[in-house]
Amino acid sequence: MADLSLAQPPVPADRLEAASGALTRYRVMAFVTGVVLLLGCLALVLKALDVPHMEPATGIVWVAHGYLYLVYVIVTAMLGVKLRWPLLRFALVMLAGTIPTMSFVAEHFVTRAARAAGDIEAAK
To answer: How far apart are CA 84 and CA 77, in angstroms?
Structure first.
């Protein structure tokens, strides 16, 4: 049966060290995806307020978010495999890139959990 917990499982120190680059890539993509998603939402609001010339910009922002979200999902999957995340954690962190501001929140918790796992492993 699939593990449905959200907790960061114990990870050996060498595996955490190997995941440091993946964590950096994840943090960058979470920020970029979140910013573009917020820009898309702002563009939709401006378009709804009948601000002129918003139509091309709205489409371009959403296409950019779509491609960036795919990169975000790939980078998240690479990090999750390296840190041995449970399936539910994979899904929730990946979905965070579709909800405005949630990628920032997910990035904070993922980084905190990864660093805490490293601290626990270093203390042993």
So the answer is: 10
CA distance 28 to 63: 19
The span from the CA of 102 to the CA of 9, in Å, is 22
Q: How many CB atoms lie within 10 A of CB 61?
A: 20
Alpha carbon distances (Å) from 21 to 25, 37, 93: 6, 24, 18
3-state secondary structure at position 43: helix
Summarize pLDDT for 61-113 with one digit per residue, the tens.
Answer: 999 999 999 999 999 999 999 988 888 988 999 999 999 999 999 999 999 88
Which residue, chain included where needed, has tokens 């709205």?
58
CA dist list (Å): 7 to 1, 32, 54: 17, 25, 43
Q: What pTM does this model have?
A: 0.84
Q: Is 22 helix (H, G, I), strand (E, B) or coil?
A: helix
Amino acid making up residue 7: A
Each domain of the chain, given as residue ranges in start order, spans 13-123
